[in-house]
Amino acid sequence: MSIVSDTDVNLNPAVPQVSATVRCVHCSLPVPAGLVDESSDEQFCCQGCRTAWTLIHSNGLAQWYQMLPGGVTADAIGRRDSEQQSRTFQEFDDPAFEETYCRIDPSGTSRVTLAIDGIHCAACVWLIEKLPQMLPGVVRITVNWARANAVVVWDRDKVALSQIARLLHQLGYTPCPVRESDRELRRQAENRKHLVRIGIAAAAAGNNMLIAAALYLGMFSYMSAGMEWLLRIASCVVGMVSLLGPGRVFLRGAWNAVVTRTPHMDLPVALGLTVGSVAGLVNTVRGSGEIWFDSLSVLVFLLLTGRWIQFRQQSRAADSVELLFRMTPRYAWKLIEGQPQKVLVESVRPGDELEIRVGELIPVDATVTDGATLVNESVLSGESVPVARQQGQAVAAGTLNIQSPIRVRADAVGDDTRISQIIGLVEQAALEKPAVVQWANRVGGYFVVIVIALAALTLAWWLRFDPSAAVDRTIALLIVACPCALALATPLAISVAIGRAARQQIMIKGGDVLQRLTGSGLIWLDKTGTLTRGDMQVVQWHGAEDLKPLAAALEATSTHPVARALASLADTGHCRVESVVHDPAGGISGVVDGRTVHIGNEAFMRAQLNVSEQARWQRMAENILEQGYTPIRVAVDNKICAVAALGDQVRPDAPQAIRELRRRGWQIGILSGDHQHIVTRVANQLGIDPARARGGVTPEDKISAVKQSLTGHDTVVMVGDGVNDSAALAAASAGIAVSNGAEASLAAAPVYLGRAGLQPILELMKVSQSAGRNIRLGLGISLAYNVIGVTLAMSGLINPLMAAVLMPISSLTVVAVSLGSGKIGEVEGEPSGPGDGQ
Amino acid sequence: MSVLYVALPVALLLAVAAVVAFVYQARSGQFDDLETPPRRILFDDCEGLPGQSSAADMAERKEP
After folding, report:
1. Is B9 among the domain residues?
2. Domain residue limits at B26
3. Residue range A384-392: average pLDDT?
4. Does residue B7 form part of some domain?
5. Rounded to the nearest 5°, which phi and psi values hold at A40?
6. Hey, what's the torsion of the CAs at A389, A395, A399, A404, to 10 degrees?
7. What is the Cα–Cα distance from A214 to A219, expressed in whole angstroms?
8. Which residue of chain B comes nearest to A64, CA vs CA?
9. Whether B50 and A63 lie within 8 Å, measured CB to CB
10. Mean pLDDT of the region A697-723
């Protein structure tokens, strides 16, 4: 028990009195006075801490408390309340779960990947990996810190996975299953290939530099012809290994570029490599003249390194986006003998009967068999107004049930659902999109060719006028012009930018999108969620104030977005609500405190009241509609006596962000599935050109709008979140998917924003612009440096040794400039765990 | 200087051996996770019996 001098005085009697001196031995938080047990040495603030502490101590792992880094307490690891504490993780033992998430190793053990919430320091890794010691039957558990997940290998005859999950949970780490993904395995294989190539290229480059050093030194002192021949042969062999081994990736890329007639960055690089090595080979065979194998091997090595750094940074961003989806286990309520039971979505088969509760996503394409409800299909249609669905009608997977529970019969599951098919199509489209040739790589390739031409020129020129100095000058030129800096500049700048963006929850999956965002152009925004708050609010109320509580009380019984807005109108504490009837057509009626209340749209009122509306309310409703809001009529005792205007409010930070984007040269437009009136209102409020504010747009219209604007603007950015946006996202020169968006939009867009609103878009533009600046600066430095160096070498002002000293300085400058835009630590993205304890 | 005729091929063979070792390590996945192992080694494992270290630790913690 630790005694601390805590002088805080609790002035609020409503909060339970906290003992100021006693702190929990597990999490170090103050222990509530009522829980202090005078007879015990250890004090706990809650049952969760007691469980965790006892577990850790009874397994001899108490040293864990000392491992926690300074300032971190066990409190940071997991918030435990009694409800969480009692989670059974029963579903982890479901056969369908096993089929979906687990694998059986050849040795008979089972293996599963769990995403683990709460890993935040090295001590956590240590504690989790001690699991086999605490629970017999767990063979091995390996934590991956960066991905915040763990691979668990266990013997299923000895221990159930739910037991393992429960233990992790009791320690304060919440496990969540992760679906195996082909893409992750592909990326891992690719990473290994990169490493193998870099390893071979590095060995070749290092050895070739040593050989070259011996050759250059031999020019100043005596070296036998036989020795020189041996060194040249060795350099040639090592150089060819580098070129035909790891360097083959450039040759293959260039060949594909020629065959498919698409310009590709590998082409100039391969050209430079081929010209250099053919000339080198000829000279090696001839036994005289320059060989360039040392420069070529170093070039191959540096190009590969640059590409690998960029690959790592990109796959990290892609990983974290995918993880969001792979770790959401999806459950469904399957009716087994009439009783709903919680099962994994993967175990649902066509023909199964399911219950869909209010607020749940519909897991499969299905037909309603019982009940009627409202469904939010915005993920498919982009229309934020819910649609009514009743018995016999179809509902689609991925849409949201918002009004009342229904029962459905599954028609199509998994990859056969409409939403999965759309995702498949979009992924295909994104794959087929040709990569933009990176300017820097193009420059780099031509640079090599130019340097080799200049070297030949220098050699020819000096052979004519001063044959004794010719070889010296040529070598000096080749060394000083080594394009290491060029090869590193772009990948480094892009990696720094991706890392910086990732810390702001902006995930960039491809480097070329940064290059496209450095300029200016047109941004098409999807209104919902980006410009507005995304939920309905009452903005006007025409009618007597004392009607508000009646309306609010009635609407409090419904979960419809309109109802929730009206329910927050007034305090409804004392109203009695009876005989409520929800009409899927767009209204609700009931008896509140003895008075009959109807609330709904025009059609509902006309159908329910059988009396024609007074002209006054009619005009008011039309007026509201013209302003871009939705009119909702309220009738008491069968007479309309109030009209409310409902609308989606503009985000408070939107006007400022739009001004800032304009200042940076971007034009803003709106492409929305919502009604034109609403879009016009939002555009007016934000000062967006009405000609570019288009409402009621279908997915097809979105694509054609994006494609049309591609002809008039350098860059067309599309920001969207629904499946209906995904085709347009893929068509735009830079697609941006926003948080809580559909899976399809994430697959289609190279950028994913983890926060809603315009602010992250603005930050993305800032990051891209600074990346563009860094790339140009790096290239400028290395080009200027090379021009000066080459001039000096050609005119004979520096010898090879001076050149060799000057050469790395340019690379160092470029690296310093690239990293200077952020601190070095920022190059590495941060693990997704809450707070980095290190 | 003629020792180079032997030393050079030997040096290159050594380099080949190193490359082969590296390729084996990369292919077996030893470089897949570069962030967890450096954290994992921070703490010594005392392979004591369960309860042993905990008793010592508890005694230590009880001191004011």
Report:
1. yes
2. 1-30
3. 79
4. yes
5. -110, 150
6. 40
7. 9
8. B43
9. no
10. 81
Which H or E run contains A595?
A: strand A595-600
- Residues A332/A343, Cβ–Cβ less than 8 Å: yes
Task: Give the CA distances from residue A832 to residues A18, A115, A144, A221, A755, in Å, rounded to whole numbers and listed in that order.
Answer: 33, 11, 12, 59, 15
Let me know if residue B44 belongs to a domain.
Answer: no
Indicate which of A143, A195, A836 best probes the interface with B, i.e. most B CBs within 10 Å of its own CB: A195
In a domain, B57, yes or no: no
Q: What is the pLDDT of residue A13?
A: 43
CA A357/CA A373 separation, integer angstroms: 10
Question: Residue A301 and residue A304: Cα distance in Å, rounded?
Answer: 5
Residue of A nearest to B47 (CA): A60
Q: How many CB atoms lie within 10 A of CB A141?
A: 20
Q: How far is CA A749 from CA A84, A423, A734, in A?
A: 36, 12, 7
Place of tokens 């036994």: A287
Does the beta-carbon distance from A146 to B62 stay under 8 Å?
no
Q: What is the pLDDT of residues A741-796, one digit of tens each?
A: 566 666 667 788 877 778 888 888 888 888 888 888 887 887 888 888 888 888 88
Is the interface score ipTM higher than 0.90?
Answer: no
Per CATH, the homologous superfamily of domain A506-531+651-754 is HAD superfamily/HAD-like (3.40.50.1000)
Q: Is A144 on the interface with B (CB under 8 A)?
A: yes
Taking an 8 Å cut-off on Cβ atoms, the answer to whether A831 and B46 are in contact is no
Cα-only R_g, chain B: 24
CATH number for the domain whose boundaries are A331-414: 2.70.150.10
Per DSSP, helices labelled H in A108-181 are 122-129, 131-134, 161-171
Q: Which of A146, A316, A188, A304 is nearest to B28 (CA)?
A: A188
| CATH number of the A535-649 domain | 3.40.1110.10
Is A367 in contact with A411 (CB distance < 8 Å)? yes
User: What residue ranges do the domains of chain A occupy?
Assistant: 46-180, 187-309, 331-414, 506-531+651-754, 535-649
From chain A residues 779-838, the ones with a CB under 8 A of any chain B CB are: 831, 838
Q: Fill in the DSSP letter of residue B48.
A: P
Counting one residue from chain A and one from chain B, the pairs whose CB atoms sit within 8 A come to 108
Domain spanning A46-180, CATH class: alpha beta
Interface of A with B in 172-191 (CB under 8 A): 188, 191
Residue of B6, B20, B25, B43 to mutate, interface with A, max A Cβ within 10 Å: B43
Query: What pLDDT is recorded for position B22?
Result: 95
Alpha helices in A556-614 (DSSP H): 561-567, 602-609
pLDDT digits (tens, 9 = 90+) for A263-306: 555 666 677 678 778 878 988 888 877 787 888 888 788 778 87
Do A403 and A360 touch, CB atoms closer than 8 A?
A: no
> Taking CB atoms and an 8 Å limit, are B31 and A192 in contact across chains?
yes
Q: What is the number of domains present in chain B?
A: 1
Mean pLDDT of chain A: 77
Query: What does the pLDDT look like over A106-156, one tens digit per residue?
Result: 888 888 888 887 777 778 888 888 888 888 889 988 888 777 788 899 998
How far apart are alpha carbons A365 and A399 in whole angstroms? 9
Assess whether pLDDT exceeds 60 at residue A430: no
**To which H or E segment does residue A745 belong?**
helix A743-748
CB contact under 8 A, B5 and A230: yes
- Nearest-CB residue to B26 (from A129, A192, A224): A192
Contacts of A126 in chain B (CB under 8 A): 40, 42-43
Tokens of residue A784, six digits: 């200027």
Residue A159, Cβ density class (10 Å: 0-12 exposed, 13-18 middle, ≥19 buried)? middle
Cβ separation of B39 and A61 shorter than 8 Å? no
The tokens for A87 are 């989670």
* Candidates B36, B50, B54; nearest CB to A144: B36
